[in-house]
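User: Predict structure, ligand zinc ion.
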Amino acid sequence: MLTATPIPMLADNYAWLLRDPETGTIAIVDPAETAPAHAILAQLGNRLDYILLTHHHNDHVGGADALAKHYNAVILGAAADAHRLPPLDCAVKDGDTIRLGAHTGTVIATPGHTIGHVSYFFPETPILCCGDTLFSLGCGRLFEGTPAMMFESLGKLASLPAETLLCCGHEYTEHNLAFALSLDPDNPRLLARRETVRQLRAAGQPTLPAKLGDEKQENPFLTAPDAASFAERRAARDRF
Ligand code: ZN
Ligand code: FE
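Assistant: Predicted complex:
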């Protein structure tokens, strides 16, 4: 079974280590820098097969080129953004199938945070690497896309299986939770979540991966009934 482990990078980024234990195949999603990746790969036989990029922001691609050269790894990223990503070995688009050892994944176009943003879904575990599209209890800022575009992208992700593990690009859960509670202060699920998040953060542990089934009930951007209320919530979150 494919496993996903967060690798903390920069101040609050996560790259994700994807590992197929049967074949030993290893991928890293969104490496912002190299040192934390080298440290974890040194414990895994100094092997890196693939680098998967969700979007072009430097806090997601900063280490990609150097890591690819060092380990002779293949870089995958959105064809639409090839001009502003590190040099791609494999340019992907919505609906493409990708191989990771014995496992296959699907590329899902999720524009909104940026126009060329893609997410990677591996149905067997299931694992979703969603970059800066969907966060635990939040979603990415609309730097390039429209609210309607992001609402549609989130809708696509919300249709994946409830047990899907969300491997998001940032540790933003605490602040997102505070915003969610500001909209719905007595929500028992959010209050329970606050305790779990507090304990994890106090112990220096990631709050991710989150479960899509929980997010569909608790994330104010997934519970927004339509694009207009989504837009309103996103604007309010920008000011929060
Ligand atoms: Zn970003
Ligand atoms: Fe980011």
